[in-house]
Automatic annotation (TrEMBL):
Entry GO terms, CC: plasma membrane
TM stretches of this protein: 6-29, 56-77, 83-100, 107-126, 142-158, 354-376, 405-428, 434-452
Protein name: Uncharacterized membrane protein YccC
Domain of life of the native organism: Bacteria
Alphabetized InterPro entries for the sequence: PHBA_efflux_AaeB/fusaric-R
Key word 4Fe-4S present: no
Length: 690
């Protein structure tokens, strides 16, 4: 059993004080449904101030949007309950779809607009002339609760998001240093350790940073000013992630198959490793000169595939130095709160339109089923059923399988209804006045609030408080009766079970299914890039890929360890391959006609390769490898210049991403034209490839 810590008790006491204040004001100004304010306090309450303020802002926007829609459609469709049901179900589904597509804290406004319309419209079916008053009352109650939570949070031990965000940035930088040092010099790793888990930690750190960034803008003005720097820092973090991942692959191959080349690199790697720990911008030029001295010549990379791999590794080292400097500069801007003028766009994310549409359909069906039963039965208290169905289908739509969480919520709801019954028919008849009311609520709400503060038990505590508040139906005068209580409680439970059944029938998918969808989405983008059907920037592509890998990590944990690691390794390889395909598409027109046609043939062979790999059949890697090696040989015979050098490095990176199991001493890759022993000279500054 989890025991709440002092932070949980502080959070709960603050929420209780905000609830007491909201009830006092609601009773004082004769608001009709103070229990709306009571429940909203606990929905909006968050452990960090920025989270409170952002959720409050988006809840106000969603509430007003839903209220305006309800007030607009009710007079139009009131004479046709079937059409009104269809319109409200469609509105709920549309808002849920928009919410799932947004993937920022702003998505809460869309979701809330969806089910707020249901909360206002369905109770007004019998008295449509009161729709405006009900919409206004709900807006007033919600805004009152939000103001109370925000004020209390600001006055009593506020905890800002800004310092938490900067702490997560420090953790990310420290983890990057550890990963880079382990990649550059494996002796830095603890005995028996590897760098395999480092990318996963960095991805999860980056996800946490993105979640905190939006909230920090609300409570930390300095971080609000540096949003462009934060966006660019996140983009550079993703680029650096891809570079270190590629560098890990290249150095591992060189150490395994050409220890003599690895020995030549050691002195340079040691200098870069020391610099990564203590990045001095004044030494960047020295490091570039050092890499210049280690780089094979254009002739060497045409004579030996191992030299080509070495050149690719050195290009990645150059990227590592440049990106790490940029990250340090951007981190300093964030700390100082003084961003340099720059244009930047938010991080791109993966959007699954089909799953969002399926979630919307499930919500519409659940609302429609409840309304159909309500209308057919002529049940006067049945409005709560479609309302609760809409809420539950929206709340848990981000889950692969929402049904377990909905089931837990329903169990807590039944428990909460029992608690509300005790209060309504045993406690409240024995008390009188606001003071006694608030005092009687203290034991239950404060204890439940501590569990809202803990992530592991948040759902239990929130379901208890919110459903108990709704079932109590606090008002200015005591008007509870057993029949109305049982009717409304039955409607709540019926709506919840309807949402559960519809979700299990329509919306439930497994983690393995979502893993396949994410992998398919990654490979679909790669196939579209290779065929020229997708025009996308490097930053946009890496944002999408990064988001997909971050979604894969928690899902593969339920698979066999070996299978999960294989999925993640292939996803990281696809991440790197995306860079290379963009480079090949960008440079292909500057090749000679035979080389360009051979490159086009290779790019056309990638979509079938990805399809075979997904199906589990023979990947066809041998044929693809042969075609790629012939292409590398052809490019090697082209005139030596910056263009062909860059394409060669890109192709060797693509080879490692597509066929990592292929070694560099096989007959298949001894097909380059013969030449003199490799010589060492600077190749030239090469573009970013992976």
């Amino acid at each position: 059993m989890l025991i709440p810590g002092w932070r949980a008790w502080v959070f709960s006491l603050k929420a209780y004080i905000a609830m007491a204040l909201a009830l006092f004001i609601a009773f004082s100004i004769d608001l009709p449904r103070p229990y709306w304010a009571m429940g909203t306090v606990y929905i909006v309450a968050q452990p960090l101030s920025g989270m409170v303020q952002s959720k409050a802002a988006y809840r106000v926007a969603g509430t007003l949007g839903g209220a305006i829609f309800a007030i607009f459609v009710m007079p139009i469709f009131i004479t046709s309950p079937e059409l009104l049901t269809a319109v409200l179900a469609l509105w709920t589904g549309l808002c849920l779809y928009c919410s799932l597509m947004d993937k920022t804290p702003r998505s809460y406004a869309f979701m809330l607009a969806g089910y707020t319309a249901a909360f206002i419209s369905f109770p007004s079916v019998g008295t449509p002339q009161n729709i405006f008053d009900i919409g206004l009352a709900r807006s007033e109650e919600i805004i009152l609760a939000i103001l109370c939570v925000t004020v209390i949070d600001m006055l009593i031990l506020p905890q800002r998001v800004g310092p938490v965000l900067e702490q997560r940035l420090d953790i990310w930088f420290a983890n990057v240093i550890d990963w880079a040092r382990g990649v550059l010099l494996p002796r830095n790793l603890a005995e028996g350790a590897s760098t395999d888990d480092a990318p996963h930690r960095l991805i999860l750190d980056a996800v946490a940073i993105e979640q905190l960034r939006t909230h920090a803008a609300f409570d930390t003005p300095r971080l609000r000013r540096v949003q462009p720097s934060l966006f660019q820092l996140q983009q550079r973090m993703q680029s650096l992630f891809a570079v270190i991942s590629a560098l890990d692959d290249r150095l591992t191959q060189i150490r395994q198959h050409r220890p003599d080349l690895a020995a030549e690199l050691d002195s340079g790697l040691e200098e870069i490793e020391l610099w990564v720990k203590d990045p001095d911008p004044g030494r960047v030029q020295h490091l570039h000169k050092l890499l210049h001295s280690l780089e094979p010549s254009p002739a060497a990379i045409r004579e030996s595939r191992d030299e080509l791999l070495l050149a690719n590794a050195i290009a990645r080292l150059r990227n590592l130095v440049d990106y790490w400097v940029e990250c340090q500069v951007l981190r300093a801007e964030v700390t100082a709160g003084t961003p340099a003028p720059r244009a930047s766009a938010p991080i791109a994310v993966h959007r699954d339109h089909a799953m969002a549409a399926l979630s919307a359909v499930a919500a519409m069906l659940a609302v429609g089923v409840c309304c159909t039963f309500w209308i057919a039965a002529g049940w006067s208290d049945g409005a709560s059923a479609p309302m609760m169905a809409a809420v539950l289908c929206c709340f848990f739509a981000t889950q692969d399988d929402p049904s377990p969480m909905i089931a837990t919520f329903v169990q807590m709801m039944i428990f909460a209804v029992g608690i509300a019954g005790l209060y309504l028919f045993w406690v409240f008849p024995a008390i009188d006045g606001y003071t006694m009311l608030v005092a009687s609520l203290a034991p239950f709400t404060i204890l439940a609030g501590t569990y809202i503060a803990m992530p592991q038990t948040m759902l239990y505590g929130l379901a208890l408080v919110v459903n108990a508040a709704a079932s109590m139906g606090l008002a200015e005068t005591y008007t509870a009766d057993v029949q109305s209580f049982l009717n409304s409680s039955t409607a709540l439970v019926l709506g919840s079970y309807t949402a559960l059944v519809v979700t299990r029938l329509v919306r439930t998918v497994g983690a393995d299914f979502m893993v396949r969808r994410l992998v398919r989405a990654m490979q679909r983008d790669l196939a579209d890039i290779s065929l020229g059907r997708l025009q996308i920037s490097r930053e946009h592509l890496e944002g999408r890929m990064f988001d997909r890998i971050s979604a894969l990590i928690p899902r593969v944990r339920g698979q066999a360890p070996e299978q999960g690691m294989r999925v993640l390794r292939e996803a990281l390889a696809d991440f790197r391959l995306g860079y290379n395909l963009l480079t090949l598409r960008r440079l292909r027109k500057r090749l000679s006609t035979p080389a360009r046609e051979q490159l086009a043939s290779f790019l056309r062979s990638l979509p079938p390769f990805f399809k075979r790999r997904r199906s589990g059949r023979d990947h066809g890697s041998a044929a693809l490898l042969d075609e790629l090696d012939r292409l590398i040989a052809t490019i090697g015979r082209e005139p030596s210049n910056h263009l062909t050098n860059e394409i060669l490095l890109t192709l060797i990176g693509s080879r490692r991403a597509l066929c990592p199991e292929a070694t560099f001493g096989s007959a298949a890759i001894d097909s380059l034209p013969p030449g003199m022993p490799p010589s060492r000279a600077r190749v030239g500054t090469l573009e970013e490839t992976a």
